[in-house]
Amino acid sequence: MTAYIVRRLALMVPLLVGVSLVTFTLLYLVPGDPVQSLVGERATPQMVESIRRELGLDLPLHLRYGRWLARTVRGDLGRSWATHRPVMVSLIDRFPITLKLSVLAFALSTLLGVTVGVATAVREEAGGDHLARWALLGGQSVPIIYLCLVFMYVFGVWLRLTPVSGLGDGSIRYFLLPAGALGLYTSVYKARMTRSAMLEVLRQDYIRTARAKGLSERVVIYRHALKNAMVTVVTVLGAGLSALLVGSVLTETVFGLPGIGKLQIDGVYARDFPVVMGCFLFQAVVLSFTNLAMDMAYAWANPRIRFD
C-alpha cells in the first residue's frame, strides 16, 4: 500500500504540470489585452506598455510560463494584478468558506442520496419507486443556478427563515441555503448510482441464499447488499466531494459567499491571470488527493481489492 501511495504522489507532479501548462496557454490565448482591462480605456500607450513590461507580458509565452512555474515550485503563486495581494494568502483566507460549504453540502447530499437510492432499490417496481425515478430524472435536469434562485426566494424571501446572501458573521445560518441547494442538486446523481448498484447486488445468488437462510430483511439489505455495493457508492461519494470542493463556483457567486469559487469568477472577469492560475492549480491538487483517498477507500469497502 505504501509503495502504491508513493507512486501515485509521484504521478501527481507531471499531472499538475500538464494542467498548469494547458491552463496557462489557454488564458494567454484568449483574445483581448489584460493590461487594458486593468488600466481602463483612458490610459496612455506609454502607461500600458510600462505595465506590460512590469508584469512580464512582453516576454514570449514559454518564458512567462517558465517564470511562473519557477515561482510556483517555491510556493509563490504571485500577486493579484487587480488587488496586489499574494494569491496564496487569498486562497488560504477563502478556503475555509469553501470547505465549510462543501462539507455541509456533502453531508446533506450523502444522507439524501444513499437513503433514497437504497429505499428505491429495495422497493423496485412499486408505485413510489416509479415516482422517485421520475423525480430523480427531473432533479438531475434542473440547472444548479435555478435551484439556488428557488431556495433564495422560498426560504430567504418568502419564509424568511435564513439570510438570503452574504457571509455575515460567518455562522452556519449563512450557509444553510447554499449548502441546501448544492447538496440537493448533487444528491440526485448519488441516489441514481446507489440505486443501480443496490439493484445489481440484490439480484445476486448470495442475497437469495441469505434470505433463504431466514435472515431478517434488514440484515440482508444493510449487512450484505449495501456493504457489497459500497465500491460503487464510494466512487460516487468521492467524485461528489471533488465536485463540491472545486465546482461550487455558481453557488458561491449566486449567494455572495467569498469562497474560492467566487475568487475564481472575479479573477476571470478581471482577467487577473495569477488569481485564475492559482485557483485552477488548487482545484487540480484537491482533485488529485481526493482521487487518491477514494482509491484507498476501495480497499476498505472491498477487502478483495489490493494495491500491492
Can you describe this structure?
The model has no long low-confidence stretch (mean pLDDT 84). The protein has a domain at 97-301: MetI-like fold (Orthogonal Bundle). It is globular and about 85 Å long. The chain is 77% helix and 0% strand. It is an all-alpha fold and 308 residues long. The N and C termini lie close together (6 Å).
Descriptive tags:
single chain; about 300 residues; mainly alpha; MetI-like fold; 14 helices; about 75% helix
* Basic shape: globular
CATH superfamily of one domain: MetI-like
CATH architecture of one domain: Orthogonal Bundle
pLDDT < 50 runs, ≥5 residues: none
Give the DSSP E fraction (strand runs of 2 or more residues): under 5%
Amino-to-carboxy terminus distance: 6 Å
- Highest-level CATH class of one domain: Mainly Alpha
Structure classification: mainly alpha
Radius of gyration, rounded?
A: 24 Å
Helix count equals 14
Averaged pLDDT, please? 84
Q: What does the largest sheet look like? A: none
CATH topology of one domain: MetI-like fold
Quick one: how many beta strands? Answer: 0
SSE pattern, N- to C-terminal: HHHHHHHHHHHHHH
